[in-house]
Amino acid sequence: MDEEIKEMTMFAIEQPSAGTRDLYRVIFDTMDAMDEAMQSAQLSYAPGLLEAIHADEPPDISFFERLHEHPSPRTIWAIYAIVLDNRDDTQSLYIGSATAFIGGMGARFKTYDDVLRLSQKAEAENDQQSGVPSRMKEAVLDGSIITHKVPLV
Predict the structure, then answer these.
(1) Which end of the chain is less packed: N or C, by CB atoms within 10 Å?
(2) pTM over 0.85, yes/no
């Protein structure tokens, strides 16, 4: 397992944050505990992702656009990237996870396809229970279009 990934993960867990769940601090109370969990999970990474993480400069959005789905069941938990084209001719990158979504990554991606299409803008605007993360919903309602979805881990 990549040592730097483990260190960054442990650092993120230890930070006080509204987004960090206390349960993670209980489960991964030491680097050894996290290492054991990561080894048993048999994580796989998108091709080139680890090199991009280790690079001196962060990757630009085109890096994520070049990634293609690596072979893994779509029913699994995953960390994924979504590229959005914005109305002002810029692009945005959203990094999410299907950690609490029934059906895993495939179901999460289907939700984006079904609920956030511009043709269904009103439905997304009115549907509080769509399962779509609020930032993604805001982006699409503001005119952004999802152009690429790819699993990272």
Answers:
(1) N
(2) no
Strand partners, 82: 94, 149
With tokens 């260190």, the residue in question is 7
Report pLDDT digits (tens) over 84-112: 999 999 999 998 887 656 778 888 888 88
β-strand partners of 84? 92, 146
Tokens linked to 34: 């996290």
Which pLDDT tens digit goes with each residue over 68-85? 865 556 667 788 899 999
> Which DSSP string corresponds to the chain?
--HHHHHHHHHHHHS--TTS-HHHHHHTSSHHHHHHHHHHHT----TTHHHHHHSSS---HHHHHH----S--TTS--EEEEEEE-TTS-EEEEEEE-TT-TTHHHHHHHHHHHHS-GGGHHHHHH-TTS---HHHHHHHHTT-EEEEEEE--
Cα–Cα distance, 44 to 98 (Å, whole number): 15
Handedness of CA 108, 98, 90, 66 (dihedral sign): negative
| Contacts for 32 with CB less than 8 Å, ≥ 6 apart | none
